[in-house]
Design goal:
Blueprint (H helix, E strand, L loop, with lengths): L4 E5 L3 E3 L7 E3 L1 H8 L7 E5 L7 H10 L6 E5 L10 H6 L3 E4 L4 H11 L1 H10 L3 E5 L1 H4 L4 E4 L7 E3 L9 E3 L7 H11 L6 E4 L3 E6 L2 E7 L6 E6 L5 E6 L2 E2 L4
Parallel strand pairs: 1-7, 4-5, 4-6, 6-7, 8-10, 10-11, 13-16
Antiparallel strand pairs: 1-12, 2-3, 8-9, 11-14, 12-13, 14-15
């Protein structure tokens, strides 16, 4: 039986300092590739949450230049760029999902049947991962700015993981308060959150560890206390080797 693995993060691509959309892969993406156990993993990038922005797709290929990986992408706008999306995704070792609007990502994926394809890929042992929207999507839901600057709940995630999710927990001050309100009020179940540069590694539906590509960052467990509030517990991530 294969392991069903998800690496849900608030990181993965690291700016090079050479200008906008000039990235290199960070420790979290490298860790996702290492989880496959393959020397040259096949990785597919999905930028659906940013409307399949061409600049983001090109930047992804640039980030992997010189890396030991066979990189491809699937875009759905204006039409799929591969003849058989299901076959392409099931042939991967890692599926990495970029950030943007998780509400739009979920809607577009469902129109194209990617909700079912992603579950099939997960159950077949493909490592699923991503950042921000690409983290939220695997969970029941979380906080999102998909609808405007004021955060709102998203509760129709793919629910491969039976938890809520919080992203950018340290860099966007609204995120913590919004997640507390949603968990304390019962809108979201037990939730796990990540500071920027931190990822949550799940095997099956169990959180096995938090990992970080940046020092002095944290993950968090947020659970309702039964009185309308929450209990928040700090999780110390394992610091990954520099990418």
């Amino acid at each position: 039986m294969v392991d069903r693995q998800i690496l849900a993060t608030s990181g993965g691509m690291v700016p090079t300092g050479r200008g906008p959309f000039q990235w290199r892969i960070g420790g979290l993406i490298r860790h996702a590739m290492e989880l496959t156990g393959r020397g040259v993993p096949r990785l597919c990038f999905l930028n659906t949450a940013s409307g399949d922005n061409d600049v983001g797709i090109r930047a992804c290929y640039g980030a992997f230049a010189g890396e030991r990986a066979a990189v491809s992408h699937v875009q759905l706008f204006l039409m799929p760029n591969v003849d058989d999306v299901r076959a392409h995704l099931l042939a991967q070792d890692v599926i990495w999902v970029g950030g943007g609007s998780v509400a739009n990502l979920l809607a577009v994926w469902r129109v194209h049947g990617l909700d079912e394809i992603m579950r099939e890929a997960w159950e077949a042992g493909v490592v699923l991962g991503g950042v921000s929207a690409g983290s939220l999507c695997w969970h029941v839901g979380g906080t999102t700015d998909s609808f405007g600057p004021e955060l709102r709940p998203i509760t129709n995630g793919l629910s491969f993981l039976p938890y809520g999710n919080g992203v950018h927990y340290d860099s966007e001050p609204q995120r913590r308060a919004a997640l507390w309100q949603l968990v304390g009020g019962g809108t979201l179940p037990l939730s796990f959150a990540t500071d920027d540069g931190v990822g949550l590694h799940y095997v099956g539906t169990e959180l096995v560890e938090a990992v970080a590509e940046l020092p002095e960052r944290s993950a968090w467990r947020v659970e309702a206390d039964g009185r309308g509030g929450v209990v928040e517990a700090h999780i110390t991530p394992r610091l990954l080797e520099p990418a």
